[in-house]
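Structural prep section.
Before we set up the soaks we want a predicted structure of the protein with NAP in place, mainly to decide which crystallisation condition to try first. Input record follows.
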Amino acid sequence: MGAKRAVVTAGTGGIGLETAVGLAEAGFAVTVVGRDAGRGAAAVERIDAAGRAAGGGAVPARFLRVDLSSLAEVRGLAGVLGAEGRLDVLVNNVGGFFVERREFGGVEASFVLNHLSPYLLTELLLPALTASAPSRVVAVSSAAVALGGRRFDSAEPGGSYYGFHRYGRAKLANLAYSLDLAKRLEGTGVAVLAADPGGASTDLSTRTMTDPRIVSPALRVLWPVLGRVFARSTSGSARDAARSSLVAATDPGLAGRTGIVIGADGRVARPARAATSPAVAASVRQLSERLVAERRD
Ligand SMILES: NC(=O)c1ccc[n+]([C@@H]2O[C@H](COP(=O)([O-])OP(=O)(O)OC[C@H]3O[C@@H](n4cnc5c(N)ncnc54)[C@H](OP(=O)(O)O)[C@@H]3O)[C@@H](O)[C@H]2O)c1
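Run finished without errors. Recording the tokens verbatim:
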């Protein structure tokens, strides 16, 4: 039978690394994906030590060097993982946002990182996930979905660029896609769950959450208060923030459940209303199909 296999994207640091550690402790053979080989090697060492300490670790962890902001590299990763056959858990943990607007392969960067890249990876791995059923896909979400506009007729809405709002919109796209995918996969044994980590002090939060330019001028006037709220909500540990992903990926009590959100406290939470709208899901699906067909980068 062999060990169950799990993949964690952006799994060499922050919340992803803690998720990978927890999966190894639960007996999974873990693959972590990131860009930096040094971080990858250090992550594998830590994951293996945790697996051994928990009495497992029979199959060592593995690092795959992939830049998930490139759809071509995502396709390559899916090729490698898909050819291996077994895949019990896919944690789509990569995400992030930027203070100043940037693009990856001609598409606004946070839309690529938080939605397009995990969307493409998941779609390409559906044969392996279905063949390995019961299996789970975990979509790492964020409370920022509440700030996302709900129109998805193009990769970017009009108007000025405020990174946190674009992040919320991209996370909303991915949550709507994930809840819709859960319906599409009903009866296959592949469950799709979203996980909201709450907040943690990580590279992502320390790089971005202290800069008032991430929010619109209307919210920026509230920065003395908002900045403190952000600082407080991202002051916790990545280990605690990994809880929702770990519950979504491993909790036996969730067997047979799909299309649900796990909150930062590890309990089932109510999804943002826009993420459950069939119209939003349909426009996200059309946009995603079009963008990945157009972009061969
Ligand atoms: N931190 C929070 O407060 C918070 C709150 C809500 C939701 N979230 C969500 O939780 C998830 C993890 O967040 P985090 O704060 O742990 O993020 P993070 O600190 O940016 O995560 C660092 C990890 O991401 C990898 N990474 C970054 N860009 C990558 C790329 N292009 N390709 C491959 N790997 C990449 C890094 O490895 P390399 O540098 O080696 O590539 C490293 O393993 C994200 O989806 C985020 O949106 C976080």
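Observations: The mean pLDDT is 96.
Flagged for discussion at group meeting.
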